[in-house]
Design goal:
Layout lengths: L4 E2 L7 H15 L3 H11 L3 E6 L5 H12 L3 E6 L11 H11 L2 E5 L3 H9 L5 E5 L5 H15 L6 E5 L4 H12 L3 E5 L8 H14 L2 E5 L2 H5 L4 E4 L10 H8 L7 H4 L7 E4 L11 H4 L6 H20 L1
Helix pairs in contact: 1-6, 1-13, 3-13, 4-5, 6-7, 6-13, 7-8
Length: about 300
């Protein structure tokens, strides 16, 4: 496998997703042979993190991943760069290509990432945009495989807003044969382009996708229950949006009781406890949120290694 860039999970084949999970799990098991090979390839390499949005887990896990692989990382906020004064992304890409070996970008528009890729001679990773979060999707697929062995014929239910995290997570789950159910208000269903991609993926992978407004009905007999913050970075009309979602789309013990007894609960964090999910669910026995957090580190190692090898 030789991945050069990553913008969206829609670009990957099912075998590539599974291969990334396999590599990440080797790093997690601290497979000495894998780590030795990785360190040899990554030693003295430099990762640049261009982040125009706040981050805790994604930034830290990328920095720690690169350090543990024997490389270096440089964090660059928008204010650190001349793009804050109008320099074009393509000129930034050409500049960084002379100094570093790989870049992870956390920005607003995929077009900015694509412009960087088009003018870069080094690998580029989408560390989150308004429409996609492929790194999160990959590490969450790793968590599900660790818990459930496979996604084939699993019922996965997402409750809440149709956001960037949902898009790539749904694409990945459908590529791996899951039956995906989304519960959200009609007004907040995925955009037409996202649904078009989902339809194309389903046709190739014998998976299913349904949207409904009733979270109790959607979650029935689910193997995996997922949610995310109702208010995403950059959202406007926050209070009116909350009124549409709450309390109906809050993941509570009542909602979880309609899933299978061994269903796992997932949330990529940060969470607003008591808003999109109750304290008892997020800290409950079915919750795997801290496993998700850890797996970001190992998946980021896998991505860096795969792109630099």
């Amino acid at each position: 496998m030789n991945m050069k860039n990553l913008i969206s999970i829609s670009e990957l084949q099912d075998k590539e997703i599974l291969q990334m999970v396999k590599i990440a799990r080797k790093f997690k098991k601290n497979d000495n042979s894998s780590n030795i090979r990785a360190s040899y390839k990554i030693k003295n390499k430099t990762l640049a993190l261009i982040f125009q949005k706040p981050s805790t887990r994604t930034r830290l896990s990328f920095e720690v991943a690169m350090m543990e692989l024997g490389g270096n990382s440089i964090f660059l906020s928008e204010s650190d760069l001349q793009i804050s004064r109008g320099e074009l992304m393509k000129d930034t890409a050409r500049t960084l290509s002379k100094y570093v070996d790989i870049v992870a970008i956390r920005t607003y528009n995929n077009s900015d990432i694509q412009e960087f890729i088009d003018n870069s001679s080094i690998p580029v990773i989408n560390a989150l945009s308004n429409t996609n979060h492929p790194c999160q999707a990959l590490s969450d697929i790793q968590t599900i495989i660790e818990e459930k062995k496979t996604l084939r014929n699993l019922k996965i239910t997402w409750i809440g807003d149709s956001n960037n995290v949902l898009n790539d997570f749904m694409f990945a789950a459908l590529k791996l044969g899951a039956d995906f159910s989304l519960a959200c208000p009609n007004k907040y269903s995925p955009k037409k382009q996202v649904l078009k991609v989902a339809d194309e993926i389903m046709a190739e992978n014998n998976s299913t996708f349904s949207i409904m407004t009733d979270p109790i009905k959607a979650v029935k007999d689910s193997d995996v229950v997922v949610t995310d913050r109702i208010i995403s970075m950059g959202d406007k009309n926050k209070e009116s949006k909350k009124k549409v979602f709450l309390p109906k789309y809050r993941v509570t013990e009542k909602i979880m009781s309609n899933a299978k007894d061994d269903a796992i609960f997932m949330h990529c964090l940060p969470a607003v406890r008591g808003e999109e999910v109750s304290e008892k669910v997020i800290d409950g026995k079915n919750s795997v949120i801290w496993q998700q957090v850890e797996n970001k580190l190992h998946m980021h190692k896998a991505l860096i290694w795969s792109m630099l090898k």
